[in-house]
Specification:
This protein has about 300 residues and is mainly alpha-helical. The protein has one domain. It has 13 helices and no strands. Helix 4 runs antiparallel to helix 11 and helix 5 runs parallel beside helix 7. The longest helix is centred in the last third of the chain and has 29 residues. The chain is globular.
């Protein structure tokens, strides 16, 4: 494995770590703000933060008129659909359950990638996906293999998964034309405009009555800077270098990170079953990244 590929995998892992923290930050920010308020200001802060940097670093590219529709669709799927599903879903289910539903994205991605981008997975890759998902189940389920969660919350989280699939379909082509900074700034700016009327209609009056403190702003800024900015930078970098299918495979480790952070930050339990599940997820993720023909050739030679 070359140095660049290792760097890509590190960036994708860091992105998933930041995404996993969103499930903790949601629980903290909802003490003060409603979901629409959270999403709107999260996008505004992220867009201003990244645009300021891009101006100084001269990273922002002019958008071709032919790509306006593609960017409007990109922002429709994520942030609009994805954040509506995820943000409202997290009001009704636990951080752990929410993270495991998001981790099902790799199960749907190969189908999307096969029909849209002709990406193929080897048998070893598929085995890795299955093994990793089994590990995810061990992380999030109880000893009797059951968990209680709001059906409405679960449906909303699967709406987020659908948004992620639509985002995956749009992002691949745009990464061939624009740099990472341009894509994220544009999607977050459009997303903020999508959420602006929702904020004005449903949350503006209530927001005006909130006493703003650092405790309220801290998780909001964490969502904006780390989740909506740096996590997307690292993820899109991964998409550009290993493809959407393999990049999305890394979402399998989100519940792993979430279980760990929930243990230390929210006081949730970390049982032996969860620890075993974490090890299985990591093993499955490693297996899913193996180039099977090269792997087979190498170890067949060694046996001889």
């Amino acid at each position: 494995m070359n140095t660049k590929k290792i760097l890509v995998y590190i960036f994708l892992s860091v992105a998933m770590m930041l995404y996993s923290l969103t499930f903790v930050w949601y629980k903290q920010v909802y003490v003060y703000f409603n979901p629409i308020t959270t999403i709107f200001f999260r996008l505004v802060i992220s867009a201003v933060f990244l645009f300021s940097y891009s101006i100084v670093a001269k990273k922002f590219q002019k958008i071709n008129k032919k790509d306006y529709t593609a960017f409007l669709l990109l922002a429709l799927f994520d942030p609009l659909i994805y954040f509506i599903g995820e943000s409202f879903g997290m009001k009704y289910i636990s951080a752990t359950v929410g993270s495991v539903i998001v981790s099902t994205i790799p199960l749907f991605t190969p189908i999307l990638a096969y029909y849209m981008f002709k990406e193929r997975l080897s048998k070893m890759n598929i085995m890795g996906i299955v093994l990793s998902f089994l590990g995810v189940l061990l992380v999030v389920l109880k000893k009797d293999f059951s968990f209680s969660a709001s059906p409405g919350g679960i449906l909303l989280m699967f709406l987020a998964v659908a948004g992620a699939m639509g985002y995956s379909a749009q992002i691949v082509n745009l990464t061939q034309k624009y740099n990472i900074m341009t894509i994220i700034i544009t999607q977050n700016t459009i997303g903020a405009f999508y959420f602006l009327p929702l904020f004005l209609i449903f949350d503006a009056q209530q927001f005006a009555t909130i006493h703003i403190t650092w405790d309220a702003l801290k998780p909001l800024f964490e969502l904006a800077i780390f989740a909506s900015s740096f996590a997307y930078i690292f993820f899109i970098y991964g998409v550009k270098n290993v493809g959407i299918t393999k990049a999305n495979l890394f979402t399998n480790i989100i519940p792993v990170f979430t279980a760990i952070f929930a243990f230390f930050i929210l006081g949730e339990s970390l049982t032996v079953q969860k620890i075993i599940g974490i090890l299985i997820v990591v093993a499955g993720l490693f297996l899913s990244q193996i180039n099977y023909p090269k792997f087979k050739k190498r170890y067949f030679f060694l046996r001889k």
